[in-house]
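Sequence dictates fold. Next comes a concrete instance:
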Amino acid sequence: MGENVETAILPLRDAIRVAEELELDLVEISPTANPPVCRVMDYKKFLYEQKKKQKEMKAKSAKVVIKEIRLGPNTDDHDFDFKLKHAQKFLEEGAKVKVDVFFKGRSIIYKEKGEIILLKFAQELESYGKLEQMPRLEGKRMIIIIAPK
């Protein structure tokens, strides 16, 4: 039945009386059970502890950070290496990396180049993270996502 009360099956009036004598609340735990299950407890304290548990759970849950790196279909080797180093640093810090190739104007005809660049990028970062999503075209952008190991 709850705090300092032995477990028993009681009529509703008796249960309420017991709760009032202890200056506590009668809280229905399982209304669908036969007979319904109630506990004698301090309801405000119970709510406070529930909120506290939820806060702890929220604090423990990892916040996913996504860093974005943008390339072009004709990105040069030096720029590629420069952005690769940034991606390595982001993955080591535990952030996901979203790499996209942006096609300007008529450069959309070089879709294959964009896909090759993205796959090369993913291959270079293989030791730091795993490819979460294969290259896919969204409008004028081709995107991959790499998650840290």
